[in-house]
What does this fold into?
Amino acid sequence: MKRLWIGLIFLLTACAAAPDEISAPAMPMTNASLPDLGPAPELTNESWLNVDAPLRLADLRGKVVAIDMWTFG
It folds into this structure.
């Protein structure tokens, strides 16, 4: 069921993108100076949902990844 919702959200987001012939208001360009905190730490979860094996950052390199963080309450 969760994959269905993720797919639906992705589809709606893709469909909501403005066509090239319709120009959206330009966002002001800013030169934000954010600190470089180095590489992302490795994923160290104890439990994983909807995967056969624990995920590693090296396996996800070059892919688009959406991270949904939540906790059991």
